[in-house]
Amino acid sequence: MFSNFDFDVIVRALPYMFYQGMTFTATLTLLATTGGIIIGTMLALMRLSGFAPLALFAAGYVNLMRSVPFVLMIFWFYFLMPYIGQWVTASSQPLQVGAFSSCLITFTLFEAAFFCEIMRAGIQSISRGQMAAAQALGMTYPTSMAYIILPQAFRNMVPVLLTQTIILFQDTSLVYVISVTDFLGAASRVAQRDGRLVEMYLFAAIVYFVISLAASHMVRRIQYRVAIIR
Amino acid sequence: MAMIEIRDVSKWYGTTQVLHNCSTDVAKGEVVVVCGPSGSGKSTLIKCVNGLEPFEKGTIIVDGISVGDLKTNLPKLRARIGMVFQHFELFPHLSVIRNLSLAQVKVLGRSAEEADVNGMRLLDRVGLREHAHKFPGQLSGGQQQRVAIARALAMDPIAMLFDEPTSALDPEMIKEVLDVMVALAKDGMTMIVVTHEMGFARQVANRVVFMDTGEIVEDASTPEFFGRPRSERAQMFLSKILAH
Q1: Structural domain contains residue A114
Q2: What is the pTM for the complete model shown?
Q3: Which of A120, B76, B200, B212 shows its CA 20 to 30 Å from the CA of A212?
Q4: Is residue A1 in a domain?
């Protein structure tokens, strides 16, 4: 059945797919994960704080992000951000936001909601006695969080955080809706230009599969390494 | 003047009152054992002393500073009162020596070297120097509790609070922890100890405070408490606990 497959088209497209496409996908995944974890942790702290306005804001944010289809979010940010930017900076014309920046902001904000829930679970998994012990030693709330609670919460949640990152890696392909050239976008372009849809989409699927599988194997190994001895 | 002064302290969880007008004093260098049936408010009372538990009524003065006062810098006060918990509460992600040095550096502002030297000195004192670079999870319960005592001592506290320090330990490990506490008492440390170890109480306590249902029922010198307890409740408690 492979007799009329043209694998050569894949080889010729490799540099384009990887240099341009995969670079975009990988950069977006890494930056959005980093930003998402930082903002997500802050949201989690807000949600768990006793201060009602902060907790309500964080809860509202998470619920909003989780109840809007992601594709809609990508659209929404891409087409509305220039106008929001214009309004914020009070300039006379819509702010120029590149496709990459727009994607990065969307993904970071969206992932932050998920990472918030993960970190919240992580923080709640640490016994209250740990906070009591830190405070009994004279540590302030921020010091206790920074040196005692968050490092443990983070380590407990590393497997879940990485799994979420793998999902994010796959989700980055959704940027096709604003015609950005990520890995799938690059494959798709070549496929349509050369009329080789089956080969290119098959190849793209295999690449996503291999990377995701390798990553989840890595997660399992890291899991043992970061586990806290109890 | 008393180092720790507890005056008419009452505390509620919602509508349930867990402490009823508790009053007692602890002088410098004194060792006070707090005992009583479980749920009698012993732990809650000593957690009020360093402000880990807020209380609604009364005053607690530690070394001239009011714990309940909203203007009091609680972290600063807590840094001067050592506390040892029933479940040790060592920081499992940090090595033993880091457990001892972290608060010295972050709270007292000591240099890392200074904190480590002091930490090693205290590990020596509790006989655990060779375990400095292990993690808490690699130690036995008794060893963990000794590390927890050393961690509290590393802050050079003016008094130490012990919240059932041996209740979570296997019998053969209780002694090694009590030995450290006895030595500490002999060195003149001011201590409030919540415990069921009546042998320890007899040996080192100057006074015994007996609590039941959130009240201080009896507050007597050790010989007096064990010799002829005045209240019926204390007599019943003693007969139960000393039965075998």
Answers
A1: yes
A2: 0.88
A3: A120
A4: no
